């Protein structure tokens, strides 16, 4: 498969007004009969991808739901784009969520809607119909994921990898400042997974979008941490050994309701923690 087409290289209208810290969890705790997260704290910077790792049930996807304001924590504070959402009313959260893109696990496309209608869904909610402007924005978003020609198709006519790419197009059409990815490569073959990760890296490096990414695939995480998007070559390229290039990718490992590690790939590989060594092996 060819490398995804390069987007129009311009920042979103609000990019210049972005705070340096896009997302801030401060001692966030939540449980459902049993504790799930206890005093979890971390920050997400502009242009940073933070990869959430850990065994099933450690609260990785729950963190995404908390960041969207879909669930309220039992204690602690969550700030998104400078706004504390912990006690924010639902109607106020609606406008804030427009600046957050979500790529759901298994794509979560509407089978009865065309690709264009799926990608434009959030915009149609505001206008009631697909206008000429919305149609153009759909084509630009689909061009970013190299699926421009599929706008009139239905999800059932697409492969699994194509559906994931459409889900990314839907997430980025509002030019969000924060992207949340829930296992975007889960169940995909290695080649297709690499295509998806290339799109994540491209969004990180071209638009400087801050992202939280849940994954069970260590290979995907380390690919992001060792590659950058080369605009001249229009593809993802490895960072040369000894290079000082910052790929703006950090790791968070959850265990026993808490964060047991936060740092870069080299720091993770140098860890002497027995659990982390076993997790990476």
Description:
With 281 residues, this protein is of the alpha/beta class. It has a single domain, classed as Rossmann fold, CATH 3.40.50.300. Helices cover 33% and strands 26% of the residues. The protein has ten helices and twelve strands. Strand 4 (75-80) and strand 5 form a beta hairpin.
Q: Topology, please?
A:
Elements: E1 21-32, E2 34-45, E3 49-54, H1 60-68, E4 75-80, E5 83-84, H2 90-97, E6 100-103, H3 115-119, H4 121-127, H5 132-144, H6 160-172, E7 178-182, H7 190-207, E8 210-214, H8 218-226, E9 227-230, E10 235-238, E11 249-255, E12 258-263, H9 265-269, H10 274-280
Parallel strand pairs: 3-8, 3-11, 6-7, 7-8
Antiparallel strand pairs: 1-2, 1-4, 4-5, 9-10, 11-12
Helix pairs in contact: 5-6, 6-7
């Amino acid at each position: 498969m060819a490398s995804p087409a390069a987007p129009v290289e311009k920042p979103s209208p609000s990019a210049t007004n972005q705070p340096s810290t896009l997302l801030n969890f401060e001692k966030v705790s939540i449980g459902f009969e049993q504790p799930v997260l206890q005093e979890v704290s971390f920050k997400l910077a502009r242009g940073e991808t933070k990869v959430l790792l850990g065994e099933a049930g450690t609260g990785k996807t729950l963190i995404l739901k908390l960041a969207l304001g879909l669930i309220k924590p039992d204690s602690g504070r969550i700030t998104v784009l400078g706004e504390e959402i912990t006690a924010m009313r639902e109607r106020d959260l609606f406008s804030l969520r427009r600046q957050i893109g979500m790529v759901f696990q298994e794509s979560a496309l509407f089978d009865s809607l065309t690709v264009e209608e799926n990608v434009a869904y959030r915009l149609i909610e505001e206008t009631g119909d697909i206008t000429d402007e919305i149609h153009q924005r759909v084509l630009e978003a689909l061009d970013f994921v190299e699926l421009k020609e599929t706008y009139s198709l239905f999800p059932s006519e697409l492969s699994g990898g194509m559906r994931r790419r459409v889900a990314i197009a839907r997430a980025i059409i509002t030019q969000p400042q924060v992207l949340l990815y829930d296992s975007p490569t889960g169940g995909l073959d290695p080649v297709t997974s690499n295509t998806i990760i290339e799109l994540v890296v491209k969004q990180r490096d071209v638009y400087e979008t801050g992202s939280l990414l849940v994954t069970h695939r260590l290979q995907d995480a380390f690919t992001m941490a060792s590659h950058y998007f080369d605009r001249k070559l229009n593809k993802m390229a490895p960072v040369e050994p000894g290079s000082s290039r910052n790929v703006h990718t950090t790791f968070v490992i959850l265990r026993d309701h808490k964060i047991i590690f936060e740092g870069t790939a080299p720091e993770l590989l140098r860890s002497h923690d027995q659990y982390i060594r076993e997790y990476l092996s």
